[in-house]
Amino acid sequence: MTYSRLQKTINKLLERANESVLDSDWESIKENAENVLSLDSSNEEAKILLDLANKNIVIPQANKKQKNKKSVYDGHHDEDQDDPWKFSF
Question: Global pTM?
């Protein structure tokens, strides 16, 4: 690939990344910026876009809750505890 063709590829990837900013498509921004950096590791625009994407990619809340979830029963479950009509005196 000649230098001019390589530069055209880099420009197209940067264009895609910048278009994705308008849609807040952080995964696409990250992918395109990483592709640019694999071709030109000193590309400042790609570094900025990658940093922006990494700051905005959010781990889904469900995954966070699953990792931190603890059982309210701590391994012991009292069946009477679920019955609102059972009273203990």
Answer: 0.64
